[in-house]
Design a protein that fits this description.
mainly alpha, 4 helices
Length: 78
């Protein structure tokens, strides 16, 4: 699953920096980078002037996402 998809699915309705990030990602639509690299996303958000709170939320969400992906692959491998 792409990070973008995971964020929309898991944080869109959150009343937090994570939710703000997810809603911003959705509002950007095709303009938001959907690659699977944190460095790309950090650079994009820095360029867009994201707050430190949103940047921190990105890093935290990225860690959650990577954990989710590892668990998903472990479950699929059975």
């Amino acid at each position: 699953m792409l990070f973008y998809t995971w964020m929309i699915k898991n944080h869109l309705k959150d009343n937090s920096a994570k939710g703000l990030l997810a809603r911003s990602m959705k509002a950007e639509g095709n303009g938001f980078p959907k690659r699977r690299r944190l460095k790309t996303l950090v650079g994009y958000l820095e360029h867009r002037g994201a707050s430190q709170e949103v940047m921190d939320a990105l890093v935290e969400c990225w860690e959650e996402y990577e954990n989710h992906e590892r668990e998903s692959h472990r479950t699929e491998a059975g």
